[in-house]
Amino acid sequence: MKFATLNRTIHKWASLVIALPLLLVIVTGILLLVRKEFAILQPPTQHGIAKVPTIDFATILANTKTVDVANVNSWQDIDRLDVRPSKGVIKVRTKSSWEVQLDSETGKVLQVAYRNSEFIESLHDGTFFQKQANLWLMLPVAIVLLLLWLTGLYLFCLPYYKKWRRKHNALD
């Protein structure tokens, strides 16, 4: 079998194998790129009073516990804190994907919203399906995509090379 024929065959079948996972990565990637533009994907950051956070961790936990939908009983229910001094806000992200935004001076709850972007991120990296899917699914998809790029580049350049070769041979 000639290399060009083998290259076309690899390109055709590899593209079929990764079509659905790649489509999922592309669509979720687009949504993640525009997530801050749409409140349904990621809640907009509110603005607090202070530019320097003055509330302590006990107040952050106590005020977050007052939000029933967040379902926070202890620090084990909190995934992370995102402190934005320039906006005077502390974002408390729960493990259940709720976000509670607190004023960094008064501790007042400024906003409570569900973060759909975390669901989209888990689809994007494959961890929605299984925790290690980013290694056993998305990594092979990325490698096959690299193979598609290489075979596609070869298929694109081959006619130009043949034309150049014919012209070069005609001159000799």
From TrEMBL:
Residues passing through the membrane, by range: 12-34, 135-157
Swiss-Prot/TrEMBL keywords: Membrane, Transmembrane, Transmembrane helix
Pfam families per the UniProt record, alphabetical: PepSY_TM
InterPro entries in the cross-refs: PepSY-ass_TM
Protein origin, superkingdom: Bacteria
UniProt name for this protein: PepSY domain-containing protein
